[in-house]
Amino acid sequence: MQFWDAVIFDLDGTLWNPADGILTAWNKGFAAHGLPPFITKSHVEHWMGMLLPDIAAYILPDMDVNERLKLVMDCVHLENEYLSQHGGILYPGVTETLAQLSDVVPLSIVSNCEDGYIEGFFAAHHLGEYFADYEHPGRTGLDKAGNIRLIMERNGWQHPAYIGDTQIDRDAAQAAGIPFIHANYGFGQLDGVIQMNRFAELPHLLYSIPPH
Q1: Residue 38: exposed, middle, or buried by beta-carbon count in 10 A (0-12, 13-18, 19+)?
Q2: H or E stretch covering 118
Q3: Which of 11, 18, 49, 146 fits 166 for a cystine, CB–CB 3.0-4.6 Å?
Q4: Distance CA 112, CA 137 (A)
Q5: Of 43, 68, 86, at which residue does a domain stop?
Q6: Chain mean position to CA 142
Q7: Within this chain, do residues 70 and 95 fall inside the same structural domain, yes or no?
């Protein structure tokens, strides 16, 4: 990994697909608030990568801002509980490739999620040992670009690459001034960027493409 001093990952659509668990948890949360459990997988896939206030506005545009934030935070707590116990669907090759990469370069996660979500991913899939650090807005209040910069500064990384699947990820990497590799099996389709068709391709991509 002669070119990179760290690899930073998005989570949803890059390392795993948690959509079924999120769907189950959020509809349970809506029912607990006396609302119809109308969340569909299309809703979940649409909001992947969005910050929580934006998700709340997307799902409940006519509800009072404070009320809808309280409701979705209750859903997030149920989501974290469910995913920490049941996990999501890991993409093929994730475990093996993370083990390979972590031997030669520090790995971390920066995701637009709330407190407890990345921790739930670690608990369910036992992959925490491969990551040197992680960050999210639930802990810092920063957007994705801000958290990428924070984790770089905290660890002294000068030349990381960011791996994600959506335009939000691409924009964050650009704002943080680091290269981006697109996991095109995830939730977003992008043009004009380095494409990763399978997770197992990542070591080759990192070795063959120097940082900008």
Answers
A1: exposed
A2: helix 117-125
A3: 49
A4: 6
A5: 86
A6: 14
A7: no
Structure tokens at 188: 């977003």
pTM: 0.90
Q: Whole-angstrom Cα distance, residue 46 to residue 127?
A: 26
Instruction: Report the domain count for the chain.
Output: 2
Which H or E run contains 90? strand 89-90
Using 50, 70 and 90 to split pLDDT, how confident is the model at 208? confident
Structural domain span for residue 34: 19-86
Listed in order, strand segments (DSSP E) in 1-56 are 6-9, 16-17
Q: Find out whether 120 and 12 touch, Cβ atoms under 8 Å.
A: no
Average pLDDT over residues 27-43: 90
How far is the C-alpha of 66 from the C-alpha of 11, rounded, in Å?
Answer: 27
- Identify whether residues 48 and 99 lie together within a single domain: no
Q: Which of 9, 2, 6 is nearest to 155 (CA)?
A: 6
104 shares a domain with 69: no
For the segment 143-166, the average pLDDT, to the nearest whole number, is: 97
